[in-house]
Structures are given as structure tokens and as C-alpha cells.
Amino acid sequence: MTCCSGQPSESHDLNRKVNRDDKRLLNCSAVDVNQLWPLKYEWAWEHYINGCANNWMPSEVSMQRDVELWKSSQLSAGERLLIMRNLGFFSTGESLVGNNIVLAIFRHITNPEARQYLLRQAFEEAVHTHTFHYICESLGLDGREVFNMYREVDAIAGKDAFVMSLTRQILAPDFSTATLEGIQDFIRNLVGFYVIMEGIFFYSGFVMILSLHRRNLMTGIGEQFQYILRDETIHLNFGIDLINTIKEENSTVWTASLQDQLTAMVRDAVEYEIRYAQDCLPTGVLGLNAGLFRDYVQYIADRRMQRIGLPKAYNSQNPFPWMSETIDLTKEKNFFETRVTEYQTGGTLAW
Ligand code: FE
Ligand code: MN
């Protein structure tokens, strides 16, 4: 029995040994058991193990200092707007990533260890969405305002519509990865979510909040964002391994025209993100203004493109070098002197 003949076979031969060809990323049996043993893609398993080691819940972070600061008159109008617009994007943006996994890509990624990771990631996206509910609740914010910004603030609506159109494409009833065009559409979805949404859109949002955190402002939200950033670093790495492996295994799909389209997508995304930064920082706040975000977004866009084998488009410098420190410090003592980066649980049970 082969499961890779286009039409998946769902019959079960108990004496059959699983071979590596039965475990392809795309176009294997969609409803067989997840046969983890033997592992084929060690990278997928490793991302899964790393994700699990980073278990956390938003409610473990104290918001007391944030509540006091938020209720005081010490934050400027610009800082308040920045925080609100930031929460407005993430509160619903995280759920779009979870939905794309569960509703769109999971059924097409048929490799068991990759599916194992996707199940873990979907849970993390739920935790991230939970975080924004918890922040609204703790600070006594108008949750309706925060969670409705994707409809009411154009710069957020534009980013969300951009990625949602990619989910819709995969959800079309006649979508399949059995054709070259289908795999190309699938890669567009993965680039849209892993590279653009999680790898570009999220990172300028992280800069905004972590830069306040560096100034000792809203440190509870800052700590939540450090946890989220740690998770997102793995999401991004998984996505890049996934895209590169699909490319390797289906080399004919990586045409010059697909590469041009992906580069154009990233360029559009960069413009969306610059508009969003202008919207969050109309007058700038200490150490941050929309111009710096233009450089930052272009800088990370170049890095992401190189990782999937596309040429750089901008050659901009990183205006926030401290961000790479923040990302690299996940396993070391951290300079924010919060406990986040040392905090990993291997599953502790107390009876
Ligand atoms: Fe997330
Ligand atoms: Mn994510």
C-alpha cells in the first residue's frame, strides 16, 4: 500500500512497516493515525519539544504595577495610543494564526511529527489570545474597543484582510496540493503566515511593547510579550523549515515567477506595516517613531527573505539592535531582570 498515489488509501495493513515515504509533508493519507515512529523530520520534532519546554500561562504574570501605572497620569497620550493600538492588533491577530492552522493547513500537512508541532502551536496561539483577554481584564480596558479594532482601525484591518485572503484560498473546496499550482498556493499561505504575519507583523509590535518595558513602563505586558516572543521565535523557525523542506521535495514549484510573487507579497506587507506604525505613533514617543519602524521592518523583511532563499530587497540597518539581544537571551539571565527567560517547565505536578 502506498499513501502517496494522489488518492490516499485509508485501508490498514497491520503487518506493514512504516517507511519514510509514507511520512511525506504533503499528499499522504489525511486521516491515518499520526505514526510518529520512526521520526522523519527531526527538525519538526525538535521544535515540538522546544515549544513544550516553554509552557506558560498569562495569568502567572502579575499585572499590579501595570494597573497602577495605567490608572495614574504618568503615561503620555502617545504612549497610551501606542499600547491600545498594539493590543488591538494582537488581540485578534493571534487567533487568525490559530485558525489558519486548524482550519486550513493542518489537513494538508500530512506528516505526523509536523502535525504534532502544529497541534502544539495551535494551543500556543490560544494562550496568546488568552493573554490579550487577560490584559484587558487586568487593566479594566474596554475589551470591545480592543477586540474590535481589526474592524475599526484601517491599518489593522488591512493587515488582517491580507492574511485572511490567504486562508480563504486554502479553504476553497477544490483546493488541493496534488498539483504544482496547489503547492505554490500552499507556499504562499505559509509565507503569508509564518514569514509575514508571525515573522514581520508581530515583530514590530514586539519592539513597541519591549521598548516601553526597557523604560520600565507596563512591565507586566512587557513580560507577557517576552513569553510570546519566545514562542513566536519557534513558530517562525518551524515555518521556515517547513517552507524550505516543501521546496526541496517539490523543486519544480520554486519558479522565478513564484519567487517574484513572494517578494512582492513581502514588499506589500512592509508597506502595510509602515502604515500601521504611523498609525500607532502619529507623533512618536521616546525612542520610537514611524521612521525607525520603516528601517526595522525592512531590516527584518530582508532577514526573513534570505532564510527562505529569496534575495534581500532593502539593505536597511537595524535601528533596534537591542531586539536581537532580547531574542538571543531566551536561555540566559536576562537584562530586564524579570524571570521570563529562565522560566521553563518540564511539567511539574504537585499533589
Ligand atoms: Fe502567537
Ligand atoms: Mn505564532
CATH architecture annotation of the largest domain: Orthogonal Bundle
From the structure provided, what is the oligomeric state, counting identical versus distinct chains? single chain
Number of helices: 12
Largest sheet: none
Structural class: mainly alpha
Helix content: 55-70%
Distance between the termini: 48 Å
**CATH topology title of the largest domain:** Ribonucleotide Reductase, subunit A
Strand content: under 5%
Molecules bound to protein: fe (iii) ion, manganese (II) ion
Shape: globular
Number of strands: 0
What is the rounded Rg? 21 Å
Q: Which regions contain 5 or more consecutive residues with pLDDT less than 50?
A: 1-11, 331-342
Mean pLDDT: 89
CATH homologous superfamily annotation of the largest domain: Ribonucleotide Reductase, subunit A
CATH class term of the largest domain: Mainly Alpha
Q: What order do the helices and strands follow?
A: HHHHHHHHHHHH
Tally of separate domains: 2
